[in-house]
Amino acid sequence: MAFLICGGVPLVGEIRAQGAKNAVLPMLFASLLCEGGVTLYGVPQIGDVGVALSLLTQMGVAVSHGGDGSVTLDARAASAPTYALADAAAIRASAYLLGASLFRFGEGAIPYPGGCSFGKRPLDYHKNAFLALGAEWEEDETSIRVRGRHLHGARFSLPYPSVGATVNFILAALCAEGESVLYGFAREGHVMDLVAFLQRMGAFIRPEGNALYIRGKCPLAGLSYTVPPDAVEAGTYLIAAAATGGEVTVRGVRYGEISPLLLCFGEMGVPFRFLGDAVTVYPARHLRGTSVSAAPYPGFPTDLHPPLTVLLSRTAGGVICDLVWHDRFSYVNELEKMGLCACCSKGSVRVRQSCLQGATVTAPDLRGGAALVTAALVARGESVIRGEHLIARGYEGFAEKLYRLGANIRISAEP
Ligand code: EPU
């Protein structure tokens, strides 16, 4: 499937942010931790959630969908994951099955997790975190197995605030004997959302300064929980609104997560208003260039850097540097086919003012695909964005929401 977009129409209107992809995925896998049912409200209907639910179903978790968009998971009959879970290779979040399996079964095996491909995505921090807790780790090029029936509390320092390794350490430490401390943990909103979710289950997890204290063996119970809003999705629409010179309100936004983008809007001269839980972007008289470094929280989120490149091309120019994923720039080649004037070097892209034209391009990954759609909304003429399925991994009803905002967009079988 492909997006067909005729650009040049300013986006106008109001939408609500979907449930957060990177918060709901660990919550779904954490349903393995308790015997009682877990009901999640506001689960986004996106590709990665579909894969996660399919993996859990294959493991024997009973999954039922409510008419109100809720999903209930009952893991009482679940069994440990094995190499046969081929779909695990399709998403990154399947790595969370390792921590959840150590908790629940004392072992687990999965094909090597996949996800967006931007260079090497090693799991050495996850491995060292598990080893510190007394687990065993076996790995070859295609798969990973973990074992450890009697984990012990440990003090472990992450060399980098990795989101995935923080989540896996928490999940495994919850079944360890005694207290564990994780230093240098990731503080992204979705990590803290998982902490709040686990606390509601009965877990003892306490952030204090640079350390996260986790007490093992607390009884955990089923719960109902509403998935928090997706700041990356919200930010993508706000950037698209600013790039097309439109006026868009996104509801269901949390200030703490969106503030790095708002700070950037301020520097670029994008007028906006934050009121209650809604951000409105207004047309700018004159956009200014800027330089941005994507970095771990509270820095500018790496997942928003690709769409921001498009907005930057509407200004006198600037530089975007990604300190998290140095190789997250394949989308730039595709944008160049649309007339982007840019120059990439390791870990950064220098963008010059560009006049974008419609073209046929291919999404290299989820957020790179969102950047191409943003560019097509701005560009003169018609664009075809191939690889719709990659974008659907993280954006619920992307074409429908943009259509509601006035975009000339439709999805078609690939031409
Ligand atoms: N890293 C290592 N070793 C590890 C783990 C990470 O060297 O064992 C490095 C990575 O190579 C990278 C950096 O540490 O350079 C950060 O990686 P992190 O572990 O934080 O990323 P992740 O858990 O694999 C999650 C999100 C990503 C998001 C990053 C950073 C999920 C499912 N994925 O990935 O989301 O970019 O955190 O915030 O939560 C997306 O939504 O499009 C997406 C890619």
Description:
The structure is a single chain. With 415 residues, the protein is an alpha+beta fold. It has 2 domains: 2-18 and 229-412, UDP-n-acetylglucosamine1-carboxyvinyl-transferase, Chain; 21-226, UDP-n-acetylglucosamine1-carboxyvinyl-transferase, Chain (Alpha-beta prism). 32% of the residues lie in helices and 25% in strands. It contains 13 helices and 23 strands. It has helices at residues 21-30, 47-58, 96-105, 124-132, 163-173, 189-201, 231-244, 255-268, 305-312, 330-337, 366-378, 388-391, 398-404, and strands at 2-6, 12-16, 38-41, 62-65, 71-74, 107-111, 136-139, 143-147, 155-157, 179-183, 204-208, 211-215, 223-226, 247-251, 272-275, 278-281, 291-294, 317-322, 341-345, 348-352, 360-362, 382-386, 408-412. The strands form 6 sheets. A 4-stranded mixed sheet has the order 21-22-1-23, with helices on one face. Strands 2-14-16-15 form a 4-stranded mixed sheet, covered by helices on one side. It has a 4-stranded mixed sheet with strand order 4-5-3-13, with helices on one face. Helix 5 (163-173) links the parallel strand 9 and strand 10 (179-183). Helix 3 packs parallel to helix 5 and helix 7 (231-244) runs parallel beside helix 11 (366-378). It is globular and about 60 Å long. The relative contact order is 0.16. The model has no long low-confidence stretch (mean pLDDT 96). The site of uridine-diphosphate-2(N-acetylglucosaminyl) butyric acid (EPU) has 26 residues, from helix 1, helix 4, helix 5 and helix 11.
